[in-house]
Structure formats: C-alpha cells, structure tokens
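ARCHIVE CARD
Drawer: 12
Card no.: 0347
Subject: one protein chain, sequence and derived structure
Cross-reference: see card 0346
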Amino acid sequence: MSEAVVDNIVAVLPPLLQTLESLSFVARNLNPAEFGNVMQIAGEPDEALLAVKPRLADWPEQFSHIRAPLQAAIDAALAGYAGLRAVMNGEGDLVSVFRALRYLPRALEALYPLTELPPVSGFFIAPELREDAELQAKLAAVPNDNTGVFHEGNEPGSRGGFSMYVPEYYTPDRAWPLVTALHGGSGNGRGFLWSWLRDARSRGAILVAPTATGQTWALMGGDSDTPNLNRILDQVRARWNIDETRMLLTGMSDGGTFSYVSGLDGASRFTHLAPVSATFHPLMAEIADAERLRGLPVFITHGRLDWMFPVQTARQTQGLLAAAGANVTYREIDDLSHCYPREINAEILQWLNGAQAADA
C-alpha cells in the first residue's frame, strides 16, 4: 500500500470512528426532552470528519476497494449528523431525528468490510474485550467459509427477509448460540443487525435480524410473522450448527412486544426471550400456554425514563410472568428512555449461555 494512501487512512479513520460513536451515543441517549443536552455532549466530531473528507479524492485505482467503503461510511455519517443539526436549528421534529439516525447503520454496513484494518476491527469489538489477545488473533485470521454479514431478501424497502452475521471464526464442529433480534416499529432487520453485531462478533454468537412482513410486527390481527420466523430459523439451522438449547428471541419496542406474542406460544421453538423497551397486556399472560410459561427464561430490560411505554408496564409484566411460573430476570436502567441500550447485550448473552443473573 502506498505511503500516501496509508497517510490518508490514518487521517480519515479517527474522525470517522468518533463521529460514528457520537451518533451511537445520541441513539442510545435520545430523549425528546433532553435532545439539546444530548447533542451538546455528543459534540461536533463531524466538523473534523468534513475537514479530512477531501483526502479520499484521487486515490490510485488499485485502492478503490478501500476508498469506496470509506467514502460511503463518511457520507452516511455526515448525512446523519446534518439531519440532527437541522433539528437543533428548528428544522424538523422527533421523526426527523429518527430519520437522521437511520444513517448510522448504513455507515456501519459500509465500513464493516474494512475490518482488515486494525482500527476498524477494534471498533467492531466490544470495548471491554478490545485488549483480548485471543479474540484479536481469531479475528485477524483469514475468515472461515460461510461467515460474515449476509442479507437474504432484505434489500432496503423490502419486507419479510432477514440479515444475519456469523462470526468469522465460526466452525461447524460445535453448536453455537443463536440471537434472533427483532427491530422496532417501522424499522427493518438490516438496520437493527448493528445493534447486536459488535457483541455477537466479540462473544461468539450467530445473529439473525429479520424484517417484519408488514410495516411492523403482527401485534393485531393475523400473524404472518411467526411462520416467517420459523422459515428463517429452518433456513439458518440447515446451514449453520445452532445450539437448540440457546435460541434467543429478543427485540426492541414493537419487536420486543412481538417476542412476547410469538415467544409465549406453546409451539415456539425459542428457548429464551429478552424483550427490550416493550409493552405487555395482562391478557397475554392469561392466554399464554401455561406449560410454555413454566420455567421459561425471560430477561426484561426497560428504561425508567421510557416515554412511549411507561416503566410501570414492565414492572407489572415482571410480576405477571413470575406469578405464571416464568423464570424472570428484570433490568431497569435509570437513564434509559425509549432507546436500545446496547450495553445490555453482554449480560443477555451471559444469561443465554447459562450464567446466573441475580434480579435487580
């Protein structure tokens, strides 16, 4: 690689990665009443990124495989920040904020193929494991077959497909835990995949992120999503070695609520449920399969500041499911609004893998 290209990469990566971290910070801490404060804390890393963006011009053609992903990631990161700034300037509302944050997973998807670069690989490792020499060695090796990021019928705007991630060090000689993660209302699996990928990559889990067959999950009326989840599960299990005792169904908001709807059914094949920022109607406990509920591991995560589904709902759900015989773990996060708390993934995976989690 030419010295000039190396210099450009060294100049571009730090502000790009910092901008992505700042966008992630806004997504994690978004609360309509605190938006201005959150943006102030997030800072202005996009200004430094904008300043180094011209360094991607006029690269030798043989390095286009590096330049193109960097360019796409930078453009998406800058577009996301520009959307947030517009709202700060009075041009837009909460919907505009959500729309701006959709650029974050697009930037991450564009950047991920560059994990051959150590700073990029480190970015996609859970922070507490970045100094783990064994993990670094596994990720630095040549990827095994049938690994990485896949999209099956899950192009932007499509419904019913799925995206997935298989750790590059996957081998079929042992069974691997499966995380099936359901996006929130009006979202899609291709974007939600990135809420979990860093932890699946760091801790060794196969990750599937389906997209609902409709605009959101089948919470009312006919259920076309559970049969689709079963179809996806069959497809994944036919190709990879999945541990039948560690199959998690989790989700955010509407996705979390649907993990109850589908996961409490007596025919569900998932062994563990972990709804996040979800709602739950008491009737769901009454009509749920009693045998299914008995001893079922359920990990509930909810924010004390949730403005969409008040935390009292989650507290009530904990009591209802425990009374029905489920094995409930409950995590209430003091500073969490109606957002996805990526920091909970590590504990959920430990719980899925059999570690005992004491209730808070």
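Annotation on reverse: The CA atoms of residues 105 and 194 lie 6 Å apart. The chain is about 45% helix and 15% strand.
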